[in-house]
Specification:
Length: about 200
Amino acid sequence: MKLLRITIPAAAVMLLAACAEEKPPRSVSEFIDHPILLEAALVRCTRNRAESRYDAECVNAREAVMLTEAQKDSARRAELEAQSKRKRDALRETQRARTVARRRVAEARRQREEAEYLAQFGVLPPIEEPVTEEYSGNVPMALIPDAEDRGATYSGEFDALPNVGSNAPVMEISPDEEPETDLESIRDELRRRNDEGNEQ
């Protein structure tokens, strides 16, 4: 009976002592992971700065605030660096496109000037596109017909055509008569006239 009287009061004292113990202060990582707890701790700590200056939970809360701000600053710097990199890449791409465009314009101007220069001499500029062998070359080719054998058509027969603008007499020869036959007829005519003159 006496033992129970001693045990019950001792248990009650221990229970009261356990309830009277303070909770451990929240850590910095806990404040960072739970922004609401951090905000509540800051409100409590700012009410009496003198008393909470060395309070462990308030110290952890202030350290959590500094770490959070540092993380935000690092994220902002990373975002700004990414934006700056994107701008530099876009500017570099724009400059590259302008360079290519200027080269194309210069090449087109050079080809145009070369074509105009060659056109003065009747020479066509080289064709860049592939062409067939039949149409290859810079100067257009004229098709020349095959020469005809005209000697066979004038075998003893020809027409003496007068030269245009010339007063020289032209001897006409019948195609049915040979030159030697004409000479014999003239001789016969002369003999006949000579015989007629002698008879008279």
